[in-house]
Amino acid sequence: MFKRVLLKLSGEFLAGESGFGISPDTTAQLARLITGALEGTEVELAIVIGGGNLWRGARNGEGMDPATADYIGMLGTVMNAMALQDAMESAGRPTRVMSAIQMAAVAEPYIRRRAMRHLEKGRVVIFGGGNGAPFFTTDTTSTLRALEIGADVVLMAKNRVDGVYDSDPRKNSDAKFIAQATHREVVEQRLEVMDATALTLCMDKGLPIVVFDLFQDGNLRRLLEGERVGTLIQT
Ligand code: UDP
User: Fold this and answer.
1) Angle 112-120/138-149 helices, nearest 10 degrees?
2) Chain mean position to CA 46
3) What is the Cα–Cα distance from 159 to 128, expressed in whole angstroms?
4) From the first residue on, what is the mean pLDDT of each consecutive set of 10 residues in the chain (235 residues)?
5) pTM of the entire predicted model
6) Residue 218: CB partners within 8 Å, gap ≥ 6?
7) Residues 5, 153: contact at Cβ < 8 Å?
8) How many angstroms separate the CA atoms of 196 and 215, rounded?
């Protein structure tokens, strides 16, 4: 059983069929899935939410100052964090949104020790605003926050992909599932887990990563209880 975990959700988990924007229905389903998995466990959960359903600096900001484009992306993640908070609280779970970019009217500022205190009190902490710095992604935020709050593991949630393969299983029917790998193997074999900056940080600090299918029934619950699900990456 893990004590404290960090769950990384891409922004697309909040989008409906179109893959764009925030769907309240989809977000409500997601929130029920997460709160259901947590129920009755003592696990402390922190979430880093991405923003790709709204804006990706590099893609949507073509022709703009890249830093400005990235700041827009970070603001998007706060919108997602608020939507997820709303849905999680409707599902009965107390939460706090903490933003790396000060936005006092809608979110607490990110203060590490305060985040840990919320977790100890059983609140789910949702980190918005990425790192508060451009030229990063929310994968790096997941690693950074996980290390800061002393999480046991980073859980990289995937949408109907059950873990890491040696090539893209959607394009290659011979793709082989990888149940376990070291950080170094992931780097050397260029396996798709998280972006390179985030992965390097995990490798340097020995932070374990699990890549798993969030929508396979009971997966998150089993993971929180310490069962092996998906692909485990550790040193
Ligand atoms: N972003 C950033 N710094 C960060 C985190 C995010 O500049 O620390 C920006 C970046 O433009 C990124 C966007 O926010 O493209 C959305 O985040 P991300 O692509 O990680 O979202 P996800 O793919 O997880 O939904």
Assistant:
1) 70
2) 9
3) 21
4) 96 94 98 97 97 95 97 98 98 98 97 98 98 98 98 96 92 94 96 95 98 96 95 97
5) 0.97
6) none
7) yes
8) 25
Is beta strand 164-165 parallel, antiparallel or unpaired with respect to 177-178? antiparallel
The tokens 């484009």 sit on which residue?
69
The residue contributing the CA closest to ligand 1 atom 14 is: 73
Of all protein residues, the one whose alpha carbon is nearest to atom 22 of ligand 1 is 50
**Complete DSSP assignment for 39-55:** TT---EEEEEE--TTT-
CB under 6 Å to ligand 1: residues? 10-12, 50-52, 56-57, 70, 73-74, 77, 130-131, 133-134, 136-138, 140-141
As beta bridge partners, residue 128 has 99
Q: Where are the alpha helices (DSSP H) in the chain?
A: 24-38, 57-60, 66-90, 112-120, 138-149, 183-188, 196-205, 219-224
